[in-house]
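Collaborator request, handled under Task 6.
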Amino acid sequence: MGNRSREVAIGLSGGVDSSVAAGLLKEKGYELIGLFMEIYDESLPVGKAEKHACYGPGEEKDLESVESVCKRLRIPLYRVDLRKEYRDYVIGYFKSEYLSGKTPNPCVVCNQRLKFGFLLEKAKDLGANFRFFATGHYARIRKIGGSFVLAKAVDHSKDQTYFLYGLKPEQLSHTLFPLALYTKKEVREIAKLLSLETADRPESQDFVSGGDYASFFQDADVKEGDILDEEGHILGRHPGIAHYTVGQRRGLRVASRKPLYVTKIDPQYNRIIVSEKSRLYSKGLVVKDLHLHHATRQDKPYRVKVKIRLKHEETPAMVFPKGNNRAVILFDEPQAAVTPGQSAVFYLRDIVLGGGIIEETVGLAGAASTADCLERTEPESLGHKASRCSVWPDDSGEQGACGAGRITP
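Structure tokens returned to the collaborator:
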């Protein structure tokens, strides 16, 4: 290859988004290579389904689509075997979290550990040469105060920054998101203009083909137990805590005159606790594995909007860092179904400030009290300073969509 600043590896999944991202870069003269992650392990099979999924036997069809796109765009393709890494770091994490009573988000782990980690390392081991890595994610990269930061895509309905909050500024400095300025409708129109076979391909809907991840668990892992109300009365039996998540209403296998919801999963005693909807609300949460992307925010409270799951509407809150990569987040208004294992991601307008993994809830449903969670926070940090928001410098610097502008459908 020639100009190093134009050498880009593009992660290709077989879907329309990554295909169009490759097409946009190719149209702008970037020197591309395609990277395809092989993750499906036949020793850990799952069933086939009509809907496309990230993990499943449909990977063969994904590869066919990727090969077609690479042939159409005339770019070389590297197939990168990540089956062991996927099994160890994504499925292994998924199983461990579920069995400990939490509801993990495998997409967060897959992006942080595999797509922006092992994929690039192993591709270089195979001889791939590139300076930048591009994907079909809907997200933007901006440069503020000399540092690269993650920001929401123009199409907020498709924004995927929730999955990417763990990316560090150094990683972002070598990353391109060509779909930053496009809507999903425009992406499909561009795919047709470029005669890509993925133009009408449906999106991935599930983590696992068919949505059934029971095959990940051994019989010894999943044991029956009691379903109780908050007073300790046994209401029924459950087939295993791995089948439940906080906020779940359907499939509880209990009879009640009022709707009941899962409010707590107790792995120590293998119990599911259910209650009425009002008991789902929490005043806040505690996060671990905290990623913060601005030095001034490491040791003082600050205001944010926080998203506690992908489809959750961000809500105003205060963040109280507590050291050891942990923080307490207190909502302005109580939020429903705060779920341990999911990610809480912090935003200031469109900028991602950071995030972490939800460890526990704070407040109304019998969790730790607000005072307990803040007992080690410095007293002065709870004064008037805590109500002020330390904002980013007013800097309009932005990497944009691969530095390439837009193609109008």
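The cover message to the collaborator said: "Residues 106 and 251 are 23 Å apart (CA to CA). The chain has three domains: 8-211, 222-275, 279-387. Please let us know whether this matches your experimental observations."
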